[in-house]
């Protein structure tokens, strides 16, 4: 039985990926930084459905906490086979009293430094077995000129694509693949909380397929990336045609 560590899995897309992989038979480490109760609820639902999961608290921008989190995962389930770098700092939840520089550092810490550090540590562990999968969750914003609140987020996601290619080159000889999934507008909890029904309808009308994506469609992409041995250093764009490279 393989083990997946999913960052930022206490809610939204991360929790959907956690549930999906648990249903596929993976042991799942549900990482969180501050949403303890939400993470516990995700684990509870997985266990009620017959799956195996545990919560793992860690700030992924901190090397020491990452080491501890991976150790807990391996001590609990015996291995670390899959890393899904899903955690993000919500660009619309910037505190009012923070400076531009402080927000930039915090954004880089979670959205880019976190995947970088987690991936390097995971590679060390995966090399021992000669197999592994690392999947970075990016965004269609990696390709777009971003409005003010989204600027730091978009920069990090664009850099994540470069990180994916570099990590893929480094890891492929060891039986480990690294890929990116770049969603467009997906109907997660955060979208529902931030946007009105009218605004969601307006944005959906501008997408060629005329709707927002569903979390399960991203989960299916994660499954594909896990199963395909020949997919390496790629970005899978799932955005309903809102961006066509």
Fold and architecture overview:
The chain has a single domain (3-238), classed as Rossmann fold (3-Layer(aba) Sandwich). It is built from eight helices and seven strands; from the N terminus they run E-H-E-H-E-H-E-H-E-H-E-H-H-H-E. It has helices at 12-23, 36-48, 63-77, 100-129, 151-171, 189-194, 197-205, 215-227, and strands at residues 3-6, 27-32, 52-57, 82-85, 132-137, 176-183, 235-238. Strands 3-2-1-4-5-6-7 form a seven-stranded parallel beta sheet, with helices on both faces. Helix 1 packs parallel to helix 2 (36-48), helix 3 packs parallel to helix 4 (100-129) and helix 4 runs parallel beside helix 5 (151-171). The longest helix is centred in the middle third of the chain and has 30 residues, at 100-129. It is globular. 44% of the residues are buried.
Give a brief description:
The chain has 245 residues and is of the alpha/beta class.
- Radius of gyration, in Å, reads 17 Å
Q: What pattern of helices and strands is seen along the backbone?
A: EHEHEHEHEHEHHHE
What is the spatial order of strands in the main beta sheet?
3-2-1-4-5-6-7
Whole-number count of domains: 1
Question: What is the mean pLDDT?
Answer: 96
Q: What is the count of β-strands?
A: 7
CATH class: Alpha Beta
How does CATH name the architecture?
Answer: 3-Layer(aba) Sandwich
Q: Low-confidence spans: pLDDT under 50, at least 5 residues? A: none
The CATH homologous superfamily is named: NAD(P)-binding Rossmann-like Domain
How much helical structure, as a percent, in the residues? Answer: 40-55%
Could you describe the largest sheet, including whether it forms a barrel? 7 strands, parallel
Terminal Cα span: 37 Å
Annotated CATH topology = Rossmann fold
């Amino acid at each position: 039985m393989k083990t997946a560590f999913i960052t930022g899995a206490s809610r939204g897309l991360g929790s959907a990926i956690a549930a999906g992989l648990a249903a596929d038979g993976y042991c799942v480490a549900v990482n969180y930084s501050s949403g303890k109760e939400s993470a516990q609820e995700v684990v509870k639902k997985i266990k009620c459905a017959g799956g195996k999961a545990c919560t793992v608290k860690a700030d992924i921008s901190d090397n020491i906490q990452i080491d501890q989190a991976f150790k807990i995962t391996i001590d609990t389930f015996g291995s670390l086979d899959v890393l899904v770098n899903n955690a993000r700092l919500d660009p619309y939840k910037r505190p009012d009293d923070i400076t531009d520089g402080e927000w930039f550092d915090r954004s880089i810490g979670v959205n880019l430094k976190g995947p970088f550090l987690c991936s390097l540590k995971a590679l060390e562990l995966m090399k021992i077995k000669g197999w592994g999968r690392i999947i970075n969750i990016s965004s269609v914003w990696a390709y777009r000129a971003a409005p003010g609140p989204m600027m730091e987020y978009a920069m990090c996601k664009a850099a994540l694509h470069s990180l994916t290619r570099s990590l893929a080159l480094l890891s492929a000889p060891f039986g480990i693949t690294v890929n990116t999934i770049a969603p467009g507008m997906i109907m997660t909890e955060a979208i529902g909380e931030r946007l009105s029904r009218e605004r969601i309808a307006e944005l959906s009308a501008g997408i060629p397929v005329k709707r927002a994506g569903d979390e399960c469609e991203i989960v299916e992409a994660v499954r594909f990336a896990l199963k395909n041995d020949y997919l390496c250093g790629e970005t899978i764009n799932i955005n309903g045609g809102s961006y066509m490279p």
